[in-house]
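Sample log: Bacterial Ig-like domain-containing protein.
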Amino acid sequence: MAIKSVKVALNGQTYDLTYNATSKKYEATITAPSTTSWGEENHVYPLTFTATDVAGNTKSDTSKTIRVKETVKPTAAVTAPTNGSTVVTNKPAITVQFRDAGSGVLKSSIVLKVDNTAVAAADYTLTDVSGGVNLSYTPKTALTDGSHTITASCSDNDGNASTTASVTYKQDTTPPALTVNQPTTPTNKSACTISGTTSDATSSPVTVKITLNGTDQGAITVDASGNFSKALTLRESSNSIVVRSTDAAGKYSEITRTVVLDTVAPVFGTITVTPDPVNTGGTITISVEVTDA
């Protein structure tokens, strides 16, 4: 009995196969599904073949399957620290997002590096999210101040590799150095100059703020060598001078100086000289009362 038709069903679509007199086979060229088969049972699409003869007898065959792989590569993005940022902790929280909407992220393919040193998988945490995986990692050993680079990459379950994500950030956990040289105390001059030096190897330039008795003394110029000075006018009695040096990372050092202004001269009270008069070569006893406010 002659064959009437041969068909194949793939991913919900049915296609007719045409008899090839040369090969003596039923053949067709069809387009593969646009979606990876990774999410299907056993990661393959089933193929269902149906043959019908002219008498109406039908036979099906499901022995064949096909693996369909996506070609879109996954993505990797370091979300913290951000590129060009400055952190003030030596064990910063590092987070990475891996995404693949097709076959999904192959977790065993994930590579995280800090300064070109791979981080062991046992040391970071992976969390499944819609469309991918999130990674979080906190260094076990404190990192040194300065520049650091984080890279991350992955592959999907169909073997596509992501572009390597990379961020470079700066770490600064050390406040700037600060020395205050002047003024001295006590003093009898209301006009004084406070001076000092400041520097920071990691996060220059630094800024200096000076307050006198709680009042900001305005802009302070710091030269290329880190020197600064500011003319102040003291009030009578105790004066509190606070000098704060802040680096570009927000770390600061602070020194407080207390300067006493005393412009009142001592006051003499009773002065006695005994005996008066005194013989030549004799002994004189002098008694003086002096007070100072």
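Observation: The chain has a mean pLDDT of 95.
Observation: The chain is about 0% helix and 55% strand.
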